Protein backbone atom coordinates (compact mmCIF):
# COMPACT_ATOMS: atom_id res chain seq x y z
CA UNK A 1 0.00 0.00 0.00
CA UNK A 2 2.79 2.38 0.89
CA UNK A 3 4.57 1.57 -2.41
CA UNK A 4 1.37 2.33 -4.39
CA UNK A 5 0.89 5.72 -2.73
CA UNK A 6 4.56 6.57 -3.26
CA UNK A 7 4.26 5.62 -6.94
CA UNK A 8 1.22 7.87 -7.41
CA UNK A 9 3.00 10.80 -5.81
CA UNK A 10 6.04 10.30 -8.02
CA UNK A 11 3.92 10.04 -11.19
CA UNK A 12 2.01 13.21 -10.25
CA UNK A 13 5.27 15.08 -9.67
CA UNK A 14 6.71 13.95 -13.03
CA UNK A 15 3.52 14.95 -14.87
CA UNK A 16 3.67 18.38 -13.29
CA UNK A 17 7.19 18.82 -14.61
CA UNK A 18 6.35 17.61 -18.13
CA UNK A 19 3.19 19.68 -18.68
CA UNK A 20 4.96 23.01 -19.28
CA UNK A 21 7.45 21.31 -21.58
CA UNK A 22 4.66 19.67 -23.56
CA UNK A 23 2.98 23.05 -23.93
CA UNK A 24 6.15 24.56 -25.37
CA UNK A 25 6.66 21.63 -27.74
CA UNK A 26 3.07 21.80 -28.91
CA UNK A 27 3.41 25.54 -29.47
CA UNK A 28 6.62 25.16 -31.50
CA UNK A 29 5.26 22.20 -33.41
CA UNK A 30 2.17 24.12 -34.51
CA UNK A 31 4.29 26.73 -36.31
CA UNK A 32 1.55 29.29 -35.68
CA UNK A 33 2.75 32.71 -36.85
CA UNK A 34 1.41 36.22 -36.67
CA UNK A 35 2.49 38.89 -39.13
CA UNK A 36 2.28 42.32 -37.52
CA UNK A 37 1.45 45.64 -39.12
CA UNK A 38 4.55 47.75 -39.79
CA UNK A 39 5.72 49.87 -36.88
CA UNK A 40 6.09 53.21 -38.67
CA UNK A 41 5.00 56.85 -38.45
CA UNK A 42 5.96 57.38 -42.10
CA UNK A 43 3.62 54.88 -43.76
CA UNK A 44 -0.10 55.53 -44.06
CA UNK A 45 -2.74 52.86 -43.41
CA UNK A 46 -2.99 51.85 -47.08
CA UNK A 47 0.76 51.31 -47.35
CA UNK A 48 0.80 49.29 -44.14
CA UNK A 49 -2.04 47.14 -45.41
CA UNK A 50 -0.30 46.53 -48.75
CA UNK A 51 2.93 45.52 -47.01
CA UNK A 52 1.09 43.20 -44.60
CA UNK A 53 -0.80 41.51 -47.47
CA UNK A 54 2.38 40.85 -49.44
CA UNK A 55 4.19 39.49 -46.40
CA UNK A 56 1.34 37.10 -45.57
CA UNK A 57 1.12 35.87 -49.16
CA UNK A 58 4.83 35.10 -49.22
CA UNK A 59 4.82 33.33 -45.84
CA UNK A 60 1.85 31.27 -47.05
CA UNK A 61 3.96 29.92 -49.93
CA UNK A 62 6.09 27.95 -47.47
CA UNK A 63 3.06 25.84 -46.56
CA UNK A 64 4.23 25.06 -43.02
CA UNK A 65 2.96 28.05 -41.03
CA UNK A 66 -0.49 28.61 -39.59
CA UNK A 67 -1.16 32.31 -40.06
CA UNK A 68 -3.01 33.95 -37.17
CA UNK A 69 -5.14 37.05 -37.31
CA UNK A 70 -3.13 40.29 -37.18
CA UNK A 71 -4.03 42.52 -34.24
CA UNK A 72 -3.95 46.32 -34.24
CA UNK A 73 -1.13 47.44 -31.97
CA UNK A 74 0.08 50.85 -30.86
CA UNK A 75 3.71 49.93 -30.41
CA UNK A 76 4.68 53.09 -28.52
CA UNK A 77 1.99 52.52 -25.90
CA UNK A 78 2.97 48.88 -25.58
CA UNK A 79 6.63 49.78 -25.09
CA UNK A 80 5.64 52.11 -22.24
CA UNK A 81 3.35 49.46 -20.80
CA UNK A 82 6.09 46.81 -20.76
CA UNK A 83 8.82 49.33 -19.94
CA UNK A 84 10.78 48.42 -23.07
CA UNK A 85 13.74 50.54 -24.07
CA UNK A 86 13.77 49.12 -27.60
CA UNK A 87 11.77 46.74 -29.79
CA UNK A 88 13.94 43.69 -29.22
CA UNK A 89 12.92 40.08 -29.10
CA UNK A 90 11.86 40.23 -25.45
CA UNK A 91 9.61 43.27 -25.91
CA UNK A 92 7.99 42.01 -29.12
CA UNK A 93 7.33 38.61 -27.52
CA UNK A 94 5.62 40.23 -24.52
CA UNK A 95 3.44 42.41 -26.78
CA UNK A 96 2.44 39.47 -28.97
CA UNK A 97 1.71 37.20 -26.01
CA UNK A 98 -0.70 39.80 -24.63
CA UNK A 99 -2.46 40.35 -27.98
CA UNK A 100 -2.46 36.97 -29.75
CA UNK A 101 -3.10 33.57 -28.20
CA UNK A 102 -1.05 30.59 -29.33
CA UNK A 103 1.46 32.48 -31.45
CA UNK A 104 4.77 30.64 -31.70
CA UNK A 105 6.40 33.10 -34.06
CA UNK A 106 5.92 36.76 -34.90
CA UNK A 107 7.10 38.75 -37.92
CA UNK A 108 7.78 42.36 -37.00
CA UNK A 109 8.78 45.22 -39.36
CA UNK A 110 9.82 48.77 -38.51
CA UNK A 111 10.35 51.57 -41.04
CA UNK A 112 11.73 55.08 -40.46
CA UNK A 113 11.50 56.41 -44.00
CA UNK A 114 14.83 55.11 -45.32
CA UNK A 115 15.59 51.86 -43.50
CA UNK A 116 13.33 48.85 -42.96
CA UNK A 117 14.14 46.29 -40.25
CA UNK A 118 12.35 42.93 -40.31
CA UNK A 119 12.59 40.51 -37.38
CA UNK A 120 11.38 36.93 -36.92
CA UNK A 121 10.75 36.47 -33.19
CA UNK A 122 10.45 33.24 -31.23
CA UNK A 123 7.63 34.19 -28.83
CA UNK A 124 8.23 31.36 -26.35
CA UNK A 125 11.97 31.97 -26.09
CA UNK A 126 11.54 35.76 -26.32
CA UNK A 127 14.37 36.22 -28.76
CA UNK A 128 14.99 37.24 -32.36
CA UNK A 129 15.68 34.21 -34.56
CA UNK A 130 16.47 36.15 -37.74
CA UNK A 131 16.84 39.82 -38.65
CA UNK A 132 17.14 41.61 -42.00
CA UNK A 133 17.79 45.26 -42.81
CA UNK A 134 17.11 46.90 -46.16
CA UNK A 135 17.07 50.40 -47.61
CA UNK A 136 14.01 51.35 -49.63
CA UNK A 137 11.51 54.12 -50.13
CA UNK A 138 7.92 53.74 -48.99
CA UNK A 139 6.57 52.87 -52.44
CA UNK A 140 9.05 49.98 -52.81
CA UNK A 141 8.29 48.26 -49.49
CA UNK A 142 5.32 46.18 -50.64
CA UNK A 143 6.79 45.15 -54.03
CA UNK A 144 10.03 44.16 -52.30
CA UNK A 145 8.36 42.34 -49.40
CA UNK A 146 8.79 38.87 -50.90
CA UNK A 147 12.57 39.26 -51.18
CA UNK A 148 12.74 40.39 -47.54
CA UNK A 149 10.62 37.47 -46.31
CA UNK A 150 12.84 35.04 -48.26
CA UNK A 151 15.92 36.63 -46.67
CA UNK A 152 14.41 35.93 -43.23
CA UNK A 153 12.75 32.52 -43.77
CA UNK A 154 15.03 31.07 -46.43
CA UNK A 155 14.40 29.98 -50.03
CA UNK A 156 10.84 29.28 -51.06
CA UNK A 157 10.03 25.60 -51.64
CA UNK A 158 9.98 24.52 -55.26
CA UNK A 159 6.44 23.77 -56.29
CA UNK A 160 6.08 20.49 -58.10
CA UNK A 161 4.31 20.81 -61.41
CA UNK A 162 1.00 18.99 -61.62
CA UNK A 163 0.98 15.92 -63.87
CA UNK A 164 -1.67 15.63 -66.56
CA UNK A 165 -2.71 12.49 -68.45
CA UNK A 166 -1.89 12.85 -72.16
CA UNK A 167 -3.22 10.39 -74.76
CA UNK A 168 -1.43 10.29 -78.12
CA UNK A 169 -2.61 8.35 -81.16
CA UNK A 170 -1.99 8.27 -84.92
CA UNK A 171 -3.61 7.07 -88.12
CA UNK A 172 -1.03 4.26 -88.29
CA UNK A 173 -0.33 1.65 -85.64
CA UNK A 174 2.87 1.44 -83.60
CA UNK A 175 4.22 4.80 -84.64
CA UNK A 176 7.06 5.95 -82.37
CA UNK A 177 6.30 8.85 -80.02
CA UNK A 178 9.00 11.29 -78.87
CA UNK A 179 8.74 14.04 -76.26
CA UNK A 180 11.58 16.36 -77.14
CA UNK A 181 14.36 13.95 -78.15
CA UNK A 182 13.28 11.16 -75.79
CA UNK A 183 11.38 8.15 -77.11
CA UNK A 184 8.44 7.44 -74.77
CA UNK A 185 6.58 4.64 -76.57
CA UNK A 186 4.43 3.77 -79.57
CA UNK A 187 0.88 4.65 -80.52
CA UNK A 188 -1.66 4.36 -79.06
CA UNK A 189 0.06 5.80 -75.99
CA UNK A 190 -1.00 7.19 -72.62
CA UNK A 191 1.50 9.02 -70.39
CA UNK A 192 1.69 11.77 -67.78
CA UNK A 193 3.34 15.11 -68.48
CA UNK A 194 3.89 18.17 -66.32
CA UNK A 195 1.79 21.22 -67.08
CA UNK A 196 3.38 23.44 -69.69
CA UNK A 197 4.49 23.24 -73.32
CA UNK A 198 5.97 20.01 -74.73
CA UNK A 199 7.28 19.30 -78.24
CA UNK A 200 5.82 15.94 -79.29
CA UNK A 201 6.68 14.14 -82.53
CA UNK A 202 5.29 10.94 -84.08
CA UNK A 203 7.49 8.97 -86.48
CA UNK A 204 7.31 5.78 -88.55
CA UNK A 205 9.37 4.35 -91.37
CA UNK A 206 8.14 5.28 -94.86
CA UNK A 207 6.02 8.12 -93.38
CA UNK A 208 6.70 11.81 -92.97
CA UNK A 209 7.28 12.86 -89.34
CA UNK A 210 4.56 14.91 -87.62
CA UNK A 211 5.56 17.32 -84.85
CA UNK A 212 3.35 19.43 -82.58
CA UNK A 213 3.86 21.71 -79.56
CA UNK A 214 1.26 20.51 -77.05
CA UNK A 215 0.04 22.86 -74.34
CA UNK A 216 -0.56 20.52 -71.41
CA UNK A 217 -2.89 21.90 -68.76
CA UNK A 218 -5.29 20.34 -66.29
CA UNK A 219 -7.76 19.50 -65.02
CA UNK A 220 -8.73 16.61 -67.24
CA UNK A 221 -6.74 14.69 -69.82
CA UNK A 222 -5.22 15.98 -73.06
CA UNK A 223 -5.74 14.10 -76.33
CA UNK A 224 -3.86 14.46 -79.61
CA UNK A 225 -3.92 12.37 -82.79
CA UNK A 226 -1.23 12.69 -85.47
CA UNK A 227 -1.99 12.22 -89.15
CA UNK A 228 1.04 10.72 -90.89
CA UNK A 229 1.42 10.84 -94.68
CA UNK A 230 3.49 8.37 -96.74
CA UNK A 231 6.83 9.54 -98.09
CA UNK A 232 6.26 10.60 -101.74
CA UNK A 233 7.57 8.15 -104.38
CA UNK A 234 10.47 9.53 -106.40
CA UNK A 235 9.63 9.84 -110.12
CA UNK A 236 12.66 9.89 -112.48
CA UNK A 237 12.00 12.22 -115.42
CA UNK A 238 14.37 11.65 -118.39
CA UNK A 239 16.27 14.76 -119.34
CA UNK A 240 16.21 15.57 -123.07
CA UNK A 241 19.74 16.31 -124.35
CA UNK A 242 20.29 19.78 -125.75
CA UNK A 243 21.99 18.40 -128.93
CA UNK A 244 20.56 14.95 -129.54
CA UNK A 245 22.52 12.57 -131.77
CA UNK A 246 20.67 11.85 -135.00
CA UNK A 247 20.91 8.60 -136.93
CA UNK A 248 23.87 8.75 -139.35
CA UNK A 249 25.74 11.43 -137.34
CA UNK A 250 29.42 10.71 -136.81
CA UNK A 251 30.40 10.26 -133.22
CA UNK A 252 33.37 12.08 -131.84
CA UNK A 253 36.50 9.97 -132.29
CA UNK A 254 35.04 7.73 -135.02
CA UNK A 255 37.14 9.44 -137.71
CA UNK A 256 40.34 11.35 -137.49
CA UNK A 257 39.95 15.08 -137.73
CA UNK A 258 41.02 16.26 -141.16
CA UNK A 259 43.80 18.84 -141.14
CA UNK A 260 44.94 21.28 -143.81
CA UNK A 261 48.10 20.08 -145.52
CA UNK A 262 50.11 23.03 -144.22
CA UNK A 263 49.24 22.09 -140.66
CA UNK A 264 50.77 18.60 -140.95
CA UNK A 265 54.23 17.50 -139.87
CA UNK A 266 55.29 16.30 -143.30
CA UNK A 267 54.69 19.67 -144.92
CA UNK A 268 57.21 21.40 -142.73
CA UNK A 269 59.64 18.51 -143.13
CA UNK A 270 59.67 18.99 -146.89
CA UNK A 271 59.99 22.70 -146.56
CA UNK A 272 62.94 22.34 -144.24
CA UNK A 273 64.63 19.90 -146.63
CA UNK A 274 64.28 22.14 -149.66
CA UNK A 275 67.47 23.47 -151.17
CA UNK A 276 67.29 27.20 -151.09
CA UNK A 277 69.62 28.53 -153.77
CA UNK A 278 67.59 31.37 -155.17
CA UNK A 279 65.40 34.05 -153.82
CA UNK A 280 62.35 32.03 -154.74
CA UNK A 281 61.93 28.24 -154.33
CA UNK A 282 59.20 26.07 -155.75
CA UNK A 283 58.70 22.57 -154.30
CA UNK A 284 56.32 19.72 -154.70
CA UNK A 285 54.87 18.44 -151.44
CA UNK A 286 53.61 14.88 -151.29
CA UNK A 287 52.14 13.41 -148.10
CA UNK A 288 53.58 10.15 -146.88
CA UNK A 289 50.09 8.81 -146.61
CA UNK A 290 49.78 8.82 -150.39
CA UNK A 291 46.51 10.68 -150.28
CA UNK A 292 46.29 12.65 -153.56
CA UNK A 293 44.26 15.34 -151.83
CA UNK A 294 47.46 16.36 -150.06
CA UNK A 295 49.54 16.85 -153.23
CA UNK A 296 50.35 20.34 -154.48
CA UNK A 297 52.97 22.94 -155.28
CA UNK A 298 54.45 25.19 -152.66
CA UNK A 299 56.17 28.49 -153.41
CA UNK A 300 58.04 30.53 -150.86
CA UNK A 301 60.85 33.12 -150.81
CA UNK A 302 63.55 34.18 -148.43
CA UNK A 303 63.49 37.66 -149.89
CA UNK A 304 61.76 39.90 -147.41
CA UNK A 305 60.38 42.00 -150.25
CA UNK A 306 58.47 38.99 -151.53
CA UNK A 307 57.38 37.72 -148.10
CA UNK A 308 53.75 38.23 -148.88
CA UNK A 309 54.01 35.50 -151.51
CA UNK A 310 55.31 32.88 -149.09
CA UNK A 311 53.40 29.66 -148.44
CA UNK A 312 51.17 29.90 -151.44
CA UNK A 313 49.77 26.56 -152.46
CA UNK A 314 48.98 25.89 -156.07
CA UNK A 315 46.67 23.04 -157.08
Give an overview of the whole structure.
By secondary structure, this protein is α+β, with helices and mostly antiparallel strands. The protein folds into three domains: 20-153, Rossmann fold, CATH 3.40.50.10070; 163-226, Immunoglobulin-like (Sandwich), CATH 2.60.40; 261-314, no CATH class. It is 27% helix and 28% strand. It contains seven helices and 15 strands. It has a five-stranded mixed β-sheet with strand order 2-1-3-4-5, sandwiched between helices. A hairpin with a 2-residue loop joins strand 7 and strand 8 (182-186). Helix 2 (45-60) crosses helix 6. The protein starts with a helix and ends with a strand. 16% of the residues are buried. The model is unreliable at 13-29, 275-294 and 311-315 (pLDDT under 50).
User: What's the overall average pLDDT, rounded?
Assistant: 79
Q: Compute the CA-based radius of gyration.
A: 53 Å
CATH superfamily of the largest domain: TolB, N-terminal domain
Please give the domain count: 3
What composes the largest sheet?
5 strands, mixed
CATH topological fold name of the largest domain: Rossmann fold
What is the correct CATH architecture of the largest domain? 3-Layer(aba) Sandwich
Amino acid sequence: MKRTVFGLILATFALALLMPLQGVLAQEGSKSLVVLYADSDVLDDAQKEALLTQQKETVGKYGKYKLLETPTIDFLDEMVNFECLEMGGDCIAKIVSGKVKGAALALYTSYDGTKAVTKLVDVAKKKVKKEHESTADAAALAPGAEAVVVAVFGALPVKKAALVVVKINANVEKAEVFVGQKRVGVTPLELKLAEGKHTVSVRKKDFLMVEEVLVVKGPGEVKWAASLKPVPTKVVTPVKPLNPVKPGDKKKGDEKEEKAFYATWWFWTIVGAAVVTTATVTAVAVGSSGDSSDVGTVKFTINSAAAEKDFIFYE
